[in-house]
Amino acid sequence: MTQSKILKPALFITRILIFLFLLPWQTLRFTNHDGAAGIANKYYKISTLPPAIGLAIGVFMMVLLLAFVTGFKKTYSYGVVFLLHAAGTIMTIGILLPPYPSPQRLFLAAMPTAGAMLLLWVLRKEDTLLSFGGKFG
Fold first, then answer.
1. pTM
2. Which end of the chain has fewer beta carbons closer than 10 Å to its terminal beta carbon, N or C?
3. Is the sign of the CA dihedral 62, 15, 70, 120 positive or negative?
4. Nearest-CA neighbor of 85 among 123, 112, 54, 47?
5. Residue 135 pLDDT greater than 60, yes or no
6. Cα–Cα distance for residue pair 131/118, rounded to 1 Å
7. CA separation for the pair 61, 18 (Å, rounded)
């Protein structure tokens, strides 16, 4: 099997898994505004998040995630997903690593996910399986 035949399915699976990793956080904006506002307050120091702003962010993020998962405008969709995720991860780095008394183990998954996002952006021209510009386009 050639390297290209192995790489394309691996990139596709990475894209799908990143989408599935991010999806629950975004659906929370639609299903539990108070929960999303609480997360914004606790981890990102945004003290008030009006419902309309939370909904607008949710709509933007869902459109972005749909572009991401379909491989639409990869340079932009992959890049913005990575940058937003990396910024959010950096903002919470203080609770992720020691000497914080109790690292949030669930949030530790954000770091390798950011690495996978960066790798997917770097290899975006190879990610053609079931994507716009690939099998869809």
1. 0.86
2. N
3. positive
4. 112
5. no
6. 18
7. 14
pLDDT tier for residue 36 given thresholds of 50, 70 and 90: confident
Tokens 């572009």 correspond to 67
CB atoms closer than 10 angstroms to residue 35: 11
Average pLDDT score over residue span 129-137: 72
Exposure b/e, 53-82, CB count within 10 A at least 16 = b = ebeeebeebeebbebbbbbbebeebbbbbb
Q: Which two tokens stand for residue 49?
A: 């998040």
- List CB contacts of 110: < 8 A, sequence separation 6 or more: 85, 88, 89, 92, 96
Could you tell me what percent of the chain has a pLDDT over 90?
50
Any idea which residue has 């749909």 for tokens?
66
Residue with tokens 């909904």: 55
